[in-house]
UniProtKB/TrEMBL annotation:
Single annotated GO MF: protein C-terminal leucine carboxyl O-methyltransferase activity
Keyword annotations from UniProtKB, A to Z: Methyltransferase, S-adenosyl-L-methionine, Transferase
Name of the molecule in the record: Leucine carboxyl methyltransferase 1
Pfam families found in the cross-reference section: LCM
Matches recorded under InterPro entries: LCMT1 (IPR016651), Ppm1/Ppm2/Tcmp (IPR007213), SAM-dependent_MTases_sf (IPR029063)
Similarity comment: family membership: Belongs to the methyltransferase superfamily. LCMT family.
Example of a GO cellular component annotation carried by this entry: cytosol
Catalytic reactions on record: [phosphatase 2A protein]-C-terminal L-leucine + S-adenosyl-L-methionine = [phosphatase 2A protein]-C-terminal L-leucine methyl ester + S-adenosyl-L-homocysteine
Annotated EC: 2.1.1.233
Annotated residues for binding of S-adenosyl-L-methionine: R64, G89, D162, L163, E189
Domain of life: Eukaryota
Function comment: Methylates the carboxyl group of the C-terminal leucine residue of protein phosphatase 2A catalytic subunits to form alpha-leucine ester residues.
Length: 325
């Protein structure tokens, strides 16, 4: 019998990163239960609403969801749905189901995450008819692939893979019919920051080399060199969760530069306080009436320490560099 491999620091760090998937899902479940935005599918990935979350956390998630969705939907509309989406580190995200409901489904929607996260998500999809129904409705052939670490249908695919292993990632995506010639939007939310700068650069460079017309939307921390940022890092370290890529989160400029240095033609970045001010203000006003916010300064600090950075290359001249808020 083979000797049991010792449990390494990398295993512990990866487990802590995987736990952030549950954190995000639970926070989204609570915020939607309060009416911050609508997501009828998140309930199938988080069993209960859970304990109360502070209003500033709920507003932060509102800005995150609305901001990322704004750019994603703009890209899909710009390509008239003749595109593909790759959600990197997707976790228990429900975007595929939202796009299906809103008639914005791309040619194919890919998700990639750790195999253990993927196995959980596939189990939920298999056992929850409101989730599996959408797959059945968008699948017309007899080629459905379903096992513990991958799911592949005509329009939706989940792959278990490590984003730090580019060759294996590339091989698995191509196996499930990734089309390099289609306009492609890649999403990552609080994912690159858990990779070393060289690891995330390899991922960005791979994407820039594979796709000639693409956008990469990245949501994560920024302004991490000030005291508030350092406290954020220390709090995560106490959970054995290291921000290995924090040096690229020093400013909006470092966020943009990481893309421009890895083959992307155009890059923009805004902190979430700015994004918050640019969202449709009638809906922001509705949302702000849901709960009284006492800690307005704390909300401002939180939003100033997260950003959305989006980069593009545009051989097909779809006007991707003009997509903004």
């Amino acid at each position: 019998m083979a000797a049991r491999q010792p449990f390494t620091y990398m295993d512990t760090a990866d487990e802590a990163v995987r736990a952030t998937c549950d954190d995000a899902t639970i926070c989204k479940r609570f915020a939607t239960s309060k009416g911050y935005w609508k997501d009828p599918y998140i309930q199938y990935f988080a069993r209960s609403v859970g304990e109360r979350k502070a209003p500033e956390i709920n507003r932060g998630y509102y800005a995150r969801v609305k901001g990322v969705n704004h750019l994603l939907d703009a890209f899909i509309r710009n390509s008239e749905c003749n595109c593909q989406v790759i959600n990197l580190g997707a976790g228990l995200d429900t975007t595929f189901w939202r796009l299906k409901d809103e008639n914005l489904l791309p040619k194919k929607f890919f998700e990639v995450d750790f195999p253990t996260v993927v196995a959980r998500k596939i189990h939920n999809i298999k056992t929850k008819p409101p989730l599996s129904k959408h797959l059945i409705e968008t699948h017309s052939t007899d080629s459905l692939i379903l096992d513990t670490q991958s799911l592949d249908s005509d329009r939706y695919c989940i792959i278990g893979a490590d984003l730090r292993d580019i060759s294996a990632l590339d091989e698995k995506l191509k196996k499930f019919h990734l089309n390099p010639d289609l306009p492609t939007v890649l999403l990552s939310e609080c994912v690159l920051v858990y990779m070393t700068p060289s690891q995330s650069s390899n991922l960005l460079r791979w994407a820039a080399e594979i796709f000639h017309t693409a956008m990469f939307i990245n949501y994560e921390q920024v302004n991490m060199s000030d005291r508030f940022g350092q406290v954020m890092i220390e709090n995560l370290l106490r959970r054995q969760c290291s921000l290995a890529g924090a040096e690229l989160c020093q400013s909006l400029d470092t966020q943009k530069e990481r893309f421009l240095k890895t083959g992307w033609e155009h890059a923009d970045a805004l902190d979430m306080m700015t994004v918050y001010s640019m969202l449709p203000q009638d809906d922001v006003a509705r949302m702000e009436c849901l709960e009284f916010l006492d800690e307005k300064e704390l909300l401002q600090q939180l939003l100033q320490h997260y950003n959305i950075c989006w980069a593009s290359k545009d051989k097909l001249n779809l006007g991707l560099s003009r997509l903004s808020f």
